[in-house]
Amino acid sequence: MTVTDPSTPLAGQVALVTGGSRGLGLEMATAFAEAGADIVIASRKLDACERAAAAITEATGRRALPVAVHVGHWDELDRLADAAYDAYGRVDVLVNNAGMSPLYPSLAAVTEDLFDKVIGVNLKGPFRLSAVVGERMKKAGRGSIINVSSVAAVRPSDRELIYAAAKAGLHALTAGFAQALGPEVRVNTLMAGPFLTDISKAWDMDEFERRAKNYPMQRAGQPHEVVGAALYFATDLSRFTTGSLLAVDGGMAVSR
């Protein structure tokens, strides 16, 4: 049995995080680097990826590779996987974190293009990336895939129905990939609730605070509060956990 330093449980490993240039993705990528991993930061805008990668390297001393990619574009995901393996020769942790949930005036006003984009980023992308990276992980004999879902998957509303359907589909992908890639690769879902990332700046905070009174924790999460769950799934702490769903939502999923 290999003994690892508990302060750097990901030493010698590589973590690829989509949507990693900001918000929860950046929090997780930084935490993985602090735990000893080298990082691949993937997001649509190269300059944002470069800034995030530079900040991680400066703060932790770990290598961080920025890669511009549109997660909803099938071929770009093959290129992302190749870039990660060309740079590091391995990927040990894959976090399918990138997502999008555009507003729309009504369900009838949703266009086919908008529908396809939301499904593409939130469901098609994680499927393809899990397939191409997961297959290589399985051949290497180890790996952890973390799908970042949303409480909307179990509490859908008409304001985000396509997004909710895609995230519910991600739960199904988690179960299916856990079966397909086991026992070498673990696949789990981190179901996030409301977090105070830059996206929350568009919220009606008065409305949110009224609703939050019904949640057990009665507040939104701070971005760093996702780290414990992410590290659990990324490290050997979860070596007997796969196909599971962990809600990090302040109790929103079980609220009245």
Describe this structure in words.
By secondary structure, this protein is an alpha/beta fold. The protein has a single domain (14-246), classed as Rossmann fold (3-Layer(aba) Sandwich), CATH 3.40.50.720. 42% of the residues lie in helices and 16% in strands. It contains 7 helices and 7 strands. The protein has helices at residues 23-34, 46-60, 74-88, 112-140, 161-181, 205-212, 227-234, and strands at residues 14-18, 38-43, 64-68, 93-96, 143-150, 185-192, 245-248. The chain has a 7-stranded parallel β-sheet, with helices on both faces. β4 (93-96), α4 and β5 form a beta-alpha-beta unit. α1 (23-34) runs parallel beside α2, α3 packs parallel to α4 and α4 (112-140) packs parallel to α5.
Helix content: 40-55%
Largest beta-sheet details: 7 strands, parallel
Query: Which class in CATH terms?
Result: Alpha Beta
Q: How would you sum up the global shape?
A: globular
Low-pLDDT residue intervals, each spanning 5 or more residues? none
Give me the secondary-structure topology.
Elements: E1 14-18, H1 23-34, E2 38-43, H2 46-60, E3 64-68, H3 74-88, E4 93-96, H4 112-140, E5 143-150, H5 161-181, E6 185-192, H6 205-212, H7 227-234, E7 245-248
Parallel strand pairs: 1-2, 1-4, 2-3, 4-5, 5-6, 6-7
Helix pairs in contact: 1-2, 1-7, 3-4, 4-5
